[in-house]
Amino acid sequence: MGMVMVKCPETGRAIPTGMKTDRESFQRSTVFFGRTHCPICHTDHAWFAREAWVHEPGASAQRRSAGSI
Ligand SMILES: [Zn+2]
Question: Which residue of 43, 56, 66, 67 is 20 to 30 Å from 21, comparing CA positions?
Answer without folding.
Answer: 43
